[in-house]
Amino acid sequence: MTAEQRVLITGVAGFGGSNLARALLNLGYSVTGLDITPPGHANLLSNELSMPKFRYVWKSVQDIQPGDLEGHSTIVHLAAQADAPLAFESPRYTVLQNIEGMIALLEAVRRTESVSKFMFAGSGNEIGRAAYLPIDEAHPLTPHNPYAFSKAAAEMALETWRLAYGVPSIVVRTGVVIGPNMRREVFIFKWLWNVLHGKSLVVEGGRQTRDLAFIDDVVRAWILAIQAPPEEVVGQKFFVGSGQEYSIDDLARMCRDAIGANVPIEHVGYRPGEEGHREAFSVEKARRVLGYAPQVSPREAIKKTAEWVRTLL
Ligand SMILES: NC(=O)c1ccc[n+]([C@@H]2O[C@H](COP(=O)([O-])OP(=O)(O)OC[C@H]3O[C@@H](n4cnc5c(N)ncnc54)[C@H](O)[C@@H]3O)[C@@H](O)[C@H]2O)c1
Hints:
It is a single chain. By secondary structure, the chain is an alpha/beta fold. The chain has a domain at 3-175 and 214-241: 3-Layer(aba) Sandwich (Rossmann fold), CATH 3.40.50.720. The chain contains 11 helices and 13 strands. The protein has helices at 15-26, 66-69, 84-89, 91-109, 146-165, 187-196, 215-227, 230-233, 248-259, 284-290, 298-311; strands spanning 6-10, 30-35, 54-58, 74-77, 117-123, 169-174, 177-178, 201-204, 209-210, 213-214, 236-240, 246-247, 265-268. Helix 1 (15-26) links the parallel strand 1 (6-10) and strand 2 (30-35). Helix 4 packs parallel to helix 5 and helix 6 (187-196) crosses helix 11. It is globular. It binds nicotinamide-adenine-dinucleotide (NAD).
């Protein structure tokens, strides 16, 4: 097995990481997954943990060493405090976690010979208030909440280490990603769960918009970047999403339709920094360079997620 076929994923026990690990193993890659989740609680990886081509490292990204990375061609950095609502309550923890993890990893990557790609999962939230739509890779970052700031700061560190040390960075930014095994703290999950239980659906704000992506589309984009010739993707940033803009009110109605229960929709105030937020990404660069094309519309993504949520009853 050459380093070419060895990928290390940080945050592998989470929603994105477990899906990416599964897809890469299916393609014949060797995968090392690193996470702070104890192996006995890595429930999203119950099948993968015993696979010969999968190795689980129970460790924080903050303590990563070059020896952990040696022999891997690609590092995919997904480990993060990824919950925007928690970041309002715990901004210092979120910022330290997301920046410190990135710096530790960058310091290890720059000392590791085998690594030819270091891919980071950025967030569309980093953009903040869009100056124009669709948002493309040239758009400036003006984060409007602590989580967005932590991701933007981590991304800036990545760019700095690329310029200073030649770290082979790739940034793939997405908006809200949904699908089976998604985090239950994300509003789409909470809405679907509430509708399923006949409870009212609580919308924070309503007129702000999102570009919603289905997990399979995002994993496909990550794999396209992993497989692309390094000279085409290293040092590049990509937006990946559906390319479609929907208001939070529209998405709430789609969740209600997907479950088919006519529960009331209640409106409460906007989250800090949310009022006026608009989001629709240009996926042109991802299409041109990676060959990415979204295959699942936001409405279809919600339907597929609703099918999974039903199975949890
Ligand atoms: N899901 C989305 O909607 C979305 C959108 C844009 C960007 N992202 C980014 O994608 C990445 C993955 O998101 P997700 O939805 O899979 O989140 P997740 O919370 O499901 O997974 C994150 C994983 O990282 C692990 N982790 C946290 N701190 C760690 C540390 N110090 N060391 C090692 N592991 C650690 C957690 O245990 C968890 O398993 C994150 O970086 C997130 O910011 C997610």
